[in-house]
What does this fold into?
Amino acid sequence: MTNHSALPTPSALIDEKKMSCNIDRMQRRIAELGPRFRPHVKTSKCLEVVQRQLAAGAQGITVSTLKEAENFFAAGIDDILYAVCLAPNKIEQAASLIDRGCRLTVVVDSAAAAGMISARKTPLGKTFRTMIEVDTDGHRSGIRPQSEELLEIGKILAGGIAELAGVMTHAGSSYDVDTLEALQEIAEQERRLCVLAAERLRGAGYDCPEVSIGSTPTALSARSLEGVTEVRAGVYVFFDLVMKNVGVCGIDDIALSVATTVIGHQPEKGWAIVDAGWMAMSRDRGTQKQKKDYGYGAVCDISGAVIPGFMLASANQEHGILAAENGIAAQDIARIFPIGTQLRILPNHACATGAQFPEYRTINNDGSTAVWERFHGW
Amino acid sequence: MTNHSALPTPSALIDEKKMSCNIDRMQRRIAELGPRFRPHVKTSKCLEVVQRQLAAGAQGITVSTLKEAENFFAAGIDDILYAVCLAPNKIEQAASLIDRGCRLTVVVDSAAAAGMISARKTPLGKTFRTMIEVDTDGHRSGIRPQSEELLEIGKILAGGIAELAGVMTHAGSSYDVDTLEALQEIAEQERRLCVLAAERLRGAGYDCPEVSIGSTPTALSARSLEGVTEVRAGVYVFFDLVMKNVGVCGIDDIALSVATTVIGHQPEKGWAIVDAGWMAMSRDRGTQKQKKDYGYGAVCDISGAVIPGFMLASANQEHGILAAENGIAAQDIARIFPIGTQLRILPNHACATGAQFPEYRTINNDGSTAVWERFHGW
It folds into this structure.
């Protein structure tokens, strides 16, 4: 019965020094390659984090929901790319943001949605600044850069009331590889095909000033960003075990962890039960198909040092089951991790784990801490 | 471009009539078998839902976090079982709840934790009402009903300051089966072994008034609850696809769904892209290992009627990929589900999906709706 720390558990901890290094690394890298950098704030949904990204040189933000746009606009951030194709039932809220002075950019990937946007102005008579989403790796949304429909959408936007701001893409398939060669190949494909889409639109006589690309793995792997005006990335701010497996960070770069306390044991099975279950870690099992499966997370001592050989093997809502990675029951588990022991668990996916918490607690090298609120919902 | 509904998406919808039927079914069943019923509120974390469970006859509530205890106690519910073994860093908050008048019951499953609790009173001199968690199916926490340690813990609690309130168990392995015979067998094992633990404690001379058992599948399958004083269950209030696969509800009994809007297509792949990704559905893939895998959810029209043959096959943070269950690309997907179409997605796991939302929207047969807040965090 040791370590009766007053730290409430489970808690989402941010190691501020690691986060700062991650922010500086990305910002420096993109600055060297030329484009502007527009962080995706869906990872943190936290003003204090985003302020640090902007202070490091980021220009504008990327959001995944209009709630993110509303909250960050209310905090004074007015250059916002809403990087999910606009649904008809969100157009009024988008218009309202624009009318209140937000430089909001919306995204479409179909003639139907382009028609919806180009046929109208906002209540105050402003136009929708619009990007066309391009599919550069087949993993999700977007239209093919070589397609006729790309030019059709360009024509609808250019011929209507909307402002065609450019093209954007997200090479999400970069999460599925784990060698530098493969990452560089996807990064180059992302760049090349998005630039191709812009050039086809320009060739057809449409303005297409912006070429916006990005994902954390491709942003950190691209050798050239020629023709690209803007890069987006989100999870790099914290990193996580999926990114470690992809190969773009080390396990010691991961700035987000979940503090937890040992509450029981099953010695015959070699289990320590902790108070971080899937409600704390999220149900994300992103490392399951990767080269190293961390279960629900990697185990560290409360100072953040990795404890090799153990993982959060399983999880119920408020119970995590900590066990040996090799599946052999550590029958002295209660001696290794007595009840009350506090630990940190590194998450598979920082975007999913952070979302389980109403706030982050920061941990600094000088021992100081702070509580930073985050929001969720739509 | 049809169905420009004003319903914001994604939203967590509660079909109130279905929820009422689920509440009544469980309450009636347990009343017939004899014990009291103490619903687990970790599923909804919503006062309006819990008030309906209590109005139907439930006696007290079960919680998975002290935040749930605090919030429901603040709303006037004072009989609360905190069904996760108490961590040392939570003892002060538990004591504070007791001192403020909450009839809080805490749980231990080790001599170490029993010693911690039995050695102290609350600041106002009250004792900790304590249950011993018993492991009746090997799936997680608890001590074996046949073990010497059970009596040791009984002795520590009876010999110290704490009040031994009884024994409790949760047969979580009932989620892993899907026949009535197997469910009845696990239910009987849960009952028999928890009663055995109580009888061994009583035989050793310790008071053990309560025998508390339960999970949704066993509560709905048990043929006898002899010796049991109290049953607990949570997910039955909404049900979900995992419970449908287990066999304790029909798909039409599921009261929770996520409203979503179609935002794009990849016709060659037969994909409709919707605005409910894993941030809305959660990352829970509970049906993955069951007899029918629903991906990230089953697809219904906006009135709640199941659309056979389609599922939410994949999910990114704010993008869901809706596709045919049989894997054959429906190339007319944009005609079947035009942009703007609103749908409901039934979740794998209601506890996980609900937790992604700050509020529920209720849908009633008479067309009326309401917004019910829910909370998250610790």
The domain at 249-373 of chain A is CATH 2.40.37.20 (Lyase, Ornithine Decarboxylase; Chain A, domain 1). The mean pLDDT of chain A is 96. Chain A has two domains: 40-233, 249-373. The longest helix of chain A spans residues 180-203.
